[in-house]
Amino acid sequence: MTELLTSAQMRAIEAAAIASGEVTGLDLMERAGRGVVEAIFEAWPELAANRGGAAPAPPGYLGNEEEGGGSFRAVVLCGPGNNGGDGFVVARLLAERSWEVEVFLYGNPENLPPDARVNYERWRALGEVNPLSGRSIDIRRHAGAVIIDALFGTGLSRPLEGAAVDVQRFLLGLKGRSAARKALVAVDCPSGLCLDSGLPIQKGAGAAGMYVPAADLTVTFQRRKLGHVIGQGPLYCGRVAVVDIGLDKAVRDAAEGRSADAIDPIAARAFAREVARPNTSGGAYYSAPGAVGLRKRVDLHKYHQGHALVLSGGPGRGGAARLAARGALRIGAGLVTLVVPHDAVAETAARVDAIMIREADDAAALLDDDRVNAVCVGPGFGLDPRAVSLLEAVLDSKKRVVLDADALTMVGAQRHLRAKLHGGCVLTPHEGEFARLSPQAAKKLKTTAKSGPAYSKVDATREVAAEFGCTVVFKGADTVIAHAAGLCSVHSAHHDRAAPWLATAGSGDVLAGFIAGLLARGFAPMQAAETAAWLHVECALKFGPGLIAEDLPEQLPAVFRDLGL
Ligand SMILES: NC(=O)C1=CN([C@@H]2O[C@H](COP(=O)(O)OP(=O)(O)OC[C@H]3O[C@@H](n4cnc5c(N)ncnc54)[C@H](O)[C@@H]3O)[C@@H](O)[C@H]2O)[C@@H](O)CC1
Ligand SMILES: Nc1ncnc2c1ncn2[C@@H]1O[C@H](COP(=O)(O)OP(=O)(O)O)[C@@H](O)[C@H]1O
Ligand SMILES: [K+]
To answer: Is the beta carbon of 72 within 6 A of some atom in ligand 1?
Structure first.
């Protein structure tokens, strides 16, 4: 499990580590700056070539004919806080490697915080510091340079203004000619981005207030922050490198509630986590008793792998439920039964084999059957009175249930249904369905943030999970999963897990089926949602472009094989 931190958590962890005497702020800043330099060399190994001594002949792209060429170049943009302090360290370390480094400061050096001030002075022993403005950066001189954005990091509290905006516009190529830079490297985050939400802090809606140039590489410290993985963060940040600055123990102490005063005592619940590759052990043979993993135990027959019901709509509308049922079966539920209205039985029977079919009139009996231990309701289900009363019966049964699509619409609109939700419910809204569940949270999420931290998808998901008392899976390229008690995890399908092919009709139905299948296998709601979200994206990655929803469950055997199951 890897924690995803908010800015406040990172600050508290840093403060706790410094207070414990294990490390000083100056040490952390030095490690941070060094980490940025190392991450640059890792990303562009050709830049690691000149270590001290004479400058090497420049590669073609770095050549500056007017000046006769020379060493590698960096332009370091430093802000008024410790993010700027990291920038001064980067400048010094690159200059020590014979880079040509030009440093700009946004703000007054007198007002720099102490550690940043120390590093400002250390840099001043090597070179100049220019005041920052869009005009002060000469486009021609810096062609081919690596630009380091160390203006603002976790301390961003309001929209950029003045020279900071000028320079952002310059970097965006909005002012004059865009510099043909080698790379834009952001320290902690591209400045202007809120690290809690992945949303820009801006004066107004639309382009008028937003000048965050997208980085090629963002280097952050110890752990990713939420803003790197949710909202627009992944698009602005580019590749994100995480540098160890020696705070690993401090992070774990905080997340496991062992820190002293500096961190909230309910910290363990306050920390979000990245959804990880699932546990492939499980069952009494493989891990602690009671733990559930993906591996099936050799001594169990199908009735021990659970029985999932998938409730279907009427004739011509059963496709979504069939996709969910196929997903539930492939992910390993022992039995899957489609529950269909009488007039849709023939049509359904023509389309499925291993999946069983029962008429909707039998629903009450099925819900009374203790062997049925998970239900999926919503995909293609309908909103008519029959659907409402079936949903009511499902919720009254207190069985673990995935509510998707039409079921979410009904729950959003009907207070009495909402009152029946319980801890075994998993709601899987996309953005539109989320707005129906909680118009207030959706509105806050869409409101332009004029000060930081901005209200985030994590805040919104947690809020609705707590209000409804169940697990909520707020889908999207950034899928946020929250439990009523505050636990929260994020699956970010970006960079090496980018699966844009998942934006295809019916893929959400398959996800609902995956979750229901895992619930049937005994996974707890949160664990089922996390595991299903990971497998869903893994199936999409396995198939690649051209994917349609039907393909997703069919990738599971290969994905399971890759997991060593
Ligand atoms: N927390 C940690 O553990 C570490 C933090 N480090 C660095 O320190 C950074 C955080 O430093 P700070 O807390 O000083 O925050 P920042 O350096 O992000 O910025 C804070 C300063 O900018 C001002 N400010 C905020 N928004 C502004 C705006 N729109 N226009 C003008 N001024 C604005 C604030 O009043 C404050 O003076 C991190 O992002 C990271 O780069 C690293 O040195 C390593 C360790
Ligand atoms: N760009 C994307 N990258 C990764 N996953 C995505 C992307 N867009 C959508 N998804 C995923 O695809 C699924 C779509 O679900 P949903 O919107 O309910 O579709 P449908 O109702 O057609 O089944 C969700 O699991 C969502 O997380
Ligand atoms: K920055």
So the answer is: no
Decide if 167 contacts 87 (C-beta within 8 A): no
Kindly report the pTM of this predicted structure: 0.94
**Is the CB of 500 within 6 Å of ligand 2?**
yes
What pLDDT, in 10s, does the model give residues 303-351?
Answer: 788 999 999 999 999 999 999 999 999 999 999 999 999 999 999 999 9
Instruction: Please answer whether residues 189 and 195 qualify as being in contact, where contact means their C-beta atoms are separated by less than 8 angstroms.
Output: yes
- Ligand 1 center to residue 48 CA distance, Å? 28
Q: Give the C-alpha separation, 222 to 462, whole Å.
A: 24
Share of the chain above pLDDT 90, in %: 78
Cβ-Cβ contacts under 8 Å for 109 (sequence gap 6 or more): 117, 120, 129
Query: What 8-state DSSP symbol labels residue 193?
Result: B
Which among 496, 507, 511, 542 is the best mutation to test ligand 2's pocket, defined by most ligand atoms within 8 Å of the CB? 507
Q: Is the peptide bond preceding residue 278 cis, with omega within 30 degrees of 0?
A: no
Set out the domains of the chain in order of their start, with CATH numbers. Answer: 25-49+58-264 (3.40.50.10260), 304-437+453-562 (3.40.1190.20)
Sheet holding 239-243, edge to edge: 129-131, 100-105, 73-78, 146-150, 183-187, 217-221, 239-243
CB 236 within 8 A of CB 193: yes
Express each pLDDT in 348-395 by its tens digit: 999 999 999 999 999 999 999 999 999 999 999 999 999 999 999 999
Q: Which ligand is nearest to the CA of 191?
A: 3
